[in-house]
């Protein structure tokens, strides 16, 4: 399976935000997207996910087979918002997402996913009761309860403490080791060993080996 961006361009409000983006991501590979505020990192992730139209060029998933015929069908998108209902408990939110996304044979049970993000024991609480970092960890658990090979992550560690950052780095490494792919926009090192870096907002935009990790 390969994710291919070819001369990809994205717009916001009818104005070009970026153009000429090119990269190929193979199984097990992480890519970090870096650059100053407003350089288009979030826009790029939303174009890849299919939430915004491709303004020019193309984004495609090759080799996804019947299970993953499109990028959208293959990806989890974790944006700035956690996409959880505040009135539902943490367990109810995760069960909703598992049911909505459809079960696969690689999903973790909700209780195990909560253990993996250090939230074991508080799954019964309404999402509204959780702290900022706990909310982010619950949103990360969503990645585990419904398997998708491609994780699109927008500043995924915002609000996490050091221990949670390290735990999430382990989850990302495990995802890649199992053949997953990650595209993560970030201002912070993510602990993703061997990640290439796509630098946005610079005149010479390049993908460089062994970037921010
Ligand atoms: N809905 C919108 N309409 C018009 N312009 C927008 C819209 N959303 C974002 N933009 C503009 O698009 C540009 C890229 O924004 P984007 O959020 O992709 O940047 P970013 O690199 O993710 O920034 P940050 O590091 O601050 O998160 C910015 O100039 C922003 O003002």
Automatic annotation (TrEMBL):
Domain of life: Bacteria
Keyword annotations from UniProtKB, A to Z: ATP-binding, Cytochrome c-type biogenesis, Membrane, Nucleotide-binding, Translocase, Transport
SMART domains named among the record's database cross-references: AAA
Positions of the ABC transporter domain: 3-212
An MF annotation (GO) of this entry: ATP hydrolysis activity
Protein species of origin: Manganibacter manganicus
GO biological process: cytochrome complex assembly
Classification via InterPro entries: AAA+_ATPase, ABC_transporter-like_ATP-bd, ABC_transptr_haem_export_CcmA, P-loop_NTPase
UniProt protein name: Heme ABC exporter, ATP-binding protein CcmA
